[in-house]
Design goal:
Layout (H helix, E strand, L loop, with lengths): L1 H7 L2 H4 L6 E5 L7 E3 L5 E3 L5 H11 L3 E6 L2 H18 L4 E6 L5 H14 L5 E4 L16 H10 L3 H21 L1 H9 L13 E5 L16 H20 L6 E7 L49 H13 L7 E4 L47 H21 L1 H9 L13 E5 L16 H20 L6 E7 L49 H13 L7 E4 L3 H4 L5
Parallel strand pairs: 1-4, 1-6, 4-5, 6-7, 7-8, 8-9, 10-11, 11-12
Antiparallel strand pairs: 2-3
GO molecular function, one term: oxidoreductase activity
Keywords: NADP, Oxidoreductase
InterPro entries: NAD(P)-bd_dom_sf, SDR_fam, Sec_Metab_Biosynth_SDR
Length: 556
């Protein structure tokens, strides 16, 4: 019996991937692909985290389909490693498939192509990504300098392109490959190596989906937005796919030496020769030992670090909805905003204050894939996430002028210039019921929720605060359409149709009525006055949800 137990937990059994079929987007590439506005694609090279994943899988016996833009490049890298596998007696093989991972119709085509070659898929790695729209921090602490760096030099198409590749593309691919993942279950989960594996989707997000310093995102807000969105969507998709018994997990890499982080440094085998570590503008506490032939310790992850994580996730049944941070401790060195409860004792006389309020975007209630269009994703993300980014920097000069006036309102109270974002509790929850069953809405609110603290970090030199409000259920035309009177007051009563548990209710408005499981205008008004009048809160998103996330799975 003891011998059998030791045999079961031996690496040759746990990680024997023969019979496993894996699909890796960007699997023969750099960690980034570049797509032009004309939808043409080209590689930076053949090196990156995707190649680390693909070579680990095939080295341990899996059949791996790598997806990228150019077939000839994919064939070239596949031949290099297939030849090596034959020479070393390894069973795994790699095959390239060209495709545009941003498009819904391409996701369908790619799944059909893999399905024509294999009866099932064991694991889908949504790894491919791009980084565009990088900025240089302004040297002057003026609104004009910040507006030029973060706003004028950044194009709408750049935001769209990065969001499509890094966030919405993985959504389309997940559901396009769902039938093939389900067929792996029908095959009995069993690889030729004798080990049972759970069908799984693994997302590549990034440590910068959580950090507040955009240095970790290569100084790209489009990249940061996209990785925040896919990072949160990982746990929500895991929640939603529970009935299918398909896992969804994530990998959040820190610095790995690839063609994205160190362009031009990789050889034909995808191995980086980069040594100029001083170029990186952040610290990595946990370094790799120096090469055997001498040199400095390497402040970056290695192919064996990534490979070990890949094998752990693929072989594990008991991890679901988890994103594993693999960043060498970088998050431990990033500045975090930690606020204790603030006892508000301020006057709320706002005479003289000028405020601009934008209306929120509406959620789209649609099925996961077939009834959901790319334009719907774009419209929601434009309205709820990228739109507030443009508005913030467009109004920056006017916010700066408030400082020039001495901050003083007519009512005698000094107020700090501030941007207040409306995100949502569903930027943190794993249950899409809190988002009105809309993944585009959930993606957008996750992105703007994280961007709040990052923008606060970036605007510190200007003395402009950025805070957020994350509402739960409020009775509006979004949550209860058609039941609002001419004064904007809702007369909705069918609370059970909301599909949510709200522990903290409002008292009934009249005798004999039920308590109201929603926020009120005075709840929201008090929070608005608190934020507008406060100097000591910055980078904070205040959750106002009646305790909903205490009883729905969340990461708040």
């Amino acid at each position: 019996m003891a011998e059998a137990i030791l045999d079961q937990v031996h690496v040759s059994n746990m990680f024997n991937l023969r019979g496993i079929v894996a699909v890796v987007t960007g699997g023969g590439s750099v960690s980034a692909m570049r797509f032009s506005a004309e939808m043409e694609c080209s590689w930076y090279g053949y090196k990156g985290i995707g190649l680390m994943m693909s070579t680990t899988l095939m080295s341990n016996g899996a059949t791996v389909y790598i997806i990228g833009p150019v077939q000839a490049d994919l064939d070239k890298i596949a031949k290099i490693y297939n030849d090596a596998a034959v020479q070393s007696g390894k069973d795994g093989r790699m095959y390239g498939l060209a495709g545009d991972i941003r498009k819904k119709k391409e996701a369908i085509r790619l799944a059909e192509e893999v399905g024509s070659r294999s009866p099932y898929v064991t694991v889908l790695f949504n790894n491919a990504g791009i980084s565009e729209g990088r900025f240089e921090r302004p040297k002057e602490s003026t609104a004009a300098a910040f507006q030029k760096a973060y706003f004028t030099n950044l194009q709408e198409e750049t935001f769209d392109n990065v969001m499509h590749a890094n966030a919405t593309g993985p959504y389309w691919l997940t559901f396009a490959f769902l039938p093939l993942l389900e067929k792996w279950k029908e095959a009995g989960f069993t690889g030729i190596g004798g080990r049972k594996f759970a069908p799984q989707v693994i997302m590549t997000s990034s440590m910068n989906g959580w950090t507040k310093d955009p240095a970790t995102s290569g100084f790209s807000f489009p990249y940061l937005y996209s990785k925040s969105a896919i990072g949160h969507a990982t746990s929500t998709l895991a929640h939603e796919l529970l009935p299918l018994d398909i896992r969804v997990n994530g990998i959040a890499p820190g610095l790995f030496l690839t063609e994205m982080s160190a362009p031009g440094s990789s050889d034909a085998l995808g191995q980086s020769q980069f040594t100029d570590f001083d170029k990186f503008k952040f610290a990595v506490p946990c370094t790799q030992p120096p090469p055997e032939d001498g040199g400095l310790p390497v402040p970056a992850g290695s192919k064996t670090d990534m490979g070990a994580l890949v094998l752990f996730l693929v072989s594990n049944w008991f991890v679901n909805g988890e994103t594993v941070l693999i960043d060498g401790g970088e998050q431990n060195t990033m500045a975090e905003t930690i606020l204790n409860e603030v006892n508000v004792a301020n006057m709320f006389d706002l005479r003289g204050v000028v405020a601009v309020v934008t209306g929120g975007g509406s959620a789209f209630q649609a099925a996961y894939f077939n009834d959901l269009e790319e334009e719907q994703f774009d419209n929601v993300i434009h309205t709820n996430a990228t739109g507030p980014y443009w508005m913030t920097f467009a109004f920056l000069p006017l916010l700066e002028k408030w400082k020039e006036l001495g901050f003083t309102a007519t009512g005698g109270k000094k107020f700090v210039p501030q941007v207040v974002m409306t995100s949502s509790m569903n930027g943190w929850t794993k249950d899409p019921a809190t988002a009105g069953f809309s993944f585009p809405y959930l993606y957008s609110k996750s992105a703007i929720g994280h961007a709040t603290s990052t923008l606060a970090h970036e605007l510190l030199p200007l003395g402009v605060r950025v805070n957020g409000i994350a509402p739960g259920v409020f009775l509006t035309e979004m949550s209860a359409p058609g039941l609002t009177d001419s004064l904007g007051q809702s007369h909705f009563k069918a609370y059970e149709t909301l599909g949510l548990k709200v522990p903290c209710t409002q008292p009934p408005t009249t005798d004999g009525e039920r308590p109201v499981p929603a926020g009120s205008k005075t709840d929201m008004g008090a929070l608005v006055l608190f934020l507008v009048s406060n100097w000591f809160v910055n980078g904070e998103t205040v959750l106002i949800d009646g305790g909903t996330l205490l009883v729905h799975p969340s990461s708040f």
